[in-house]
Each structure stands twice: as C-alpha cells, then as structure tokens.
Write a structure and sequence with these properties.
Strand order of the largest sheet: 3-4-5-8-7-6
Low-confidence stretches: none
Distance between the termini: 39 Å
Pfam family, one: UTRA
Mean pLDDT: 86
Structural class: alpha+beta
Oligomer: single chain
Order of helices and strands: HHHEEHEHEEHEHEE
Radius of gyration: 19 Å
Number of strands: 8
Largest sheet: 6 strands, antiparallel
Protein name: GntR family transcriptional regulator
Organism: Streptomyces olivaceoviridis
Number of helices: 7
Keywords: DNA-binding, Transcription, Transcription regulation
C-alpha cells in the first residue's frame, strides 16, 4: 500500500482552505503554531513544518518577535500553480481524472549524460529507469520517464509495484521529495515512443523536465513528464 502524503503537506492544504474560509487578507496575522496544532489535531512540529511550506511558497511572511502574517501573494487564488510541488498522481486526482497507470518498462541501468549531471552521479552509478503511461479510460494523459537514484529504493526492482506515486515510495524509504527545479516546454513525443505505444496524432505535448530533491537537498529523481497539450494547462504565480 503506498504511503500517504507527508502530514505537513496535508496540514498545509488544510491551512490554505482555513485562511480562505476566514477571509484573511494581506497583513492579517495567522494563528500561532500551538493554535494550528490544536485546530488540525497534529503536533507543533508538524504545524511548524506546514507553515514553513507556506513561507517557501511566498503565501506567508514571518516577522521575528511578532508572528506570521498573510502576504499579498497569499490573497491570490491560483488553481494548482506550476510552482507548487506535487506528484502527478495527486494532480490527476485533484483534476477529477480517473487515471490508471500502465508500467511500460522498468530496469536498472547506467544513466545518460543529462540524468548523470542532474542527479550528481559518478560514472559507475546506476539508476532505476521507469517508463509509465497514465490514461483516463482510453485517453492517454501523461507519458513519463523517471530516473531514480539507485540506493534510494533498495532491493531488486521486480519486488516493487511501480504503478503508484513515486513521491510516496521515496518518502516511505526515507527520501521524501519536497521541491524541484523544473523546465516547461512544448514538444512532440519522440517518434519511437509514438510508434511503440500508439501515441501519435495528439499534437504538441507539454514536457516538464525536473530534478527532485529531498529536505537535505539531495537530488533523488530526474523526471521527464509529457502532458497532453490539449488536456492540460498550467498556471504561474509571478512575484
């Protein structure tokens, strides 16, 4: 059974809804860590981590000795901004898709130059290369190629169910992904992929190439996720 999202991320989402339901505006002071912990039924450390996530996103500002306050950015409601880090599984579920995942291939292998550089690997290091397709019924939605640092998921690759969330799997093994550096571009699927999996004729796809890191700053995953261009649009917060 896949692990749940980190509790701090769940509390972060609950806080966003709480602040909006209370009609908080820029400059309003937020409840204290102790109050949030009591409201959400979690420990103070979890409440603190959730608030730090909001600070990292620019929705909350902290003033030493005074507390935390809603920022101007926090007043904006942007549905699923691309600047928010989340797994594809969570995104598809939130968008209302009844997506299922087909594992096209999984293997341990030497990385290419792009992956090696992105993950900071040595010449003799290997990765787990995972190729998957998410579909809603007969409609393909996202074609993905993920390269995972080999020691992040110990054991033979055949011992795992690779159809679930990679973020959850990494978190379950002590490497929770928290953020990434990403690049978005409009591209065609590689011709061999179109031919092999009957994915031609959909026009340009939105490719998000990203390097995912843990709280310690270690890169553990490099992903190339192709989103069908006629099915997805991404919002951006500018500040």
């Amino acid at each position: 059974m896949p692990a749940k999202r980190p509790m701090s991320a769940q509390v972060r989402d609950r806080l966003v809804e709480l602040f909006r339901s209370r009609g908080l505006v820029p400059g309003d002071q937020l409840p204290s860590e102790a109050e949030i912990a009591e409201l959400c039924g979690v420990g103070r450390s979890t409440a603190r981590e959730a608030l730090k996530l909001l600070e990292q996103e620019g929705m909350v500002v902290a003033e030493r000795g005074r507390g935390r306050f809603m920022s101007p950015l926090g007043a904006l409601k942007v549905e699923r901004p691309i600047t928010r880090f989340e797994s594809i599984s969570s995104m598809l579920e939130a968008l209302g898709y009844q997506a299922h995942t087909v594992v096209l291939s999984v293997a341990e292998q030497a990385p290419g130059d792009v992956v090696r550089e992105a993950l900071g690997l040595a010449d003799d290091d290997t990765v787990i290369r995972l190729e998957r397709l998410r579909s809603d019924g007969d409609d393909p939605l996202v074609y993905s190629v993920a390269s995972i640092v080999r020691d992040a998921i110990p054991g033979p690759v055949r011992h795992f169910d690779w159809s679930g969330s990679l973020s959850d799997m990494l978190a379950a093994h002590g490497h929770p992904p928290v953020s990434s550096a990403a690049r978005l571009s409009a591209v065609e699927l590689p011709e061999d992929v179109q031919r092999r999996y009957s994915l031609g004729g959909f026009g340009p796809w939105l490719l998000i190439s990203e390097t995912v890191i843990t709280p310690a700053g270690r890169p553990v995953l490099y992903a190339e996720d192709y989103h069908r261009g006629d099915a997805f649009a991404f919002n951006v917060l500018r500040r």
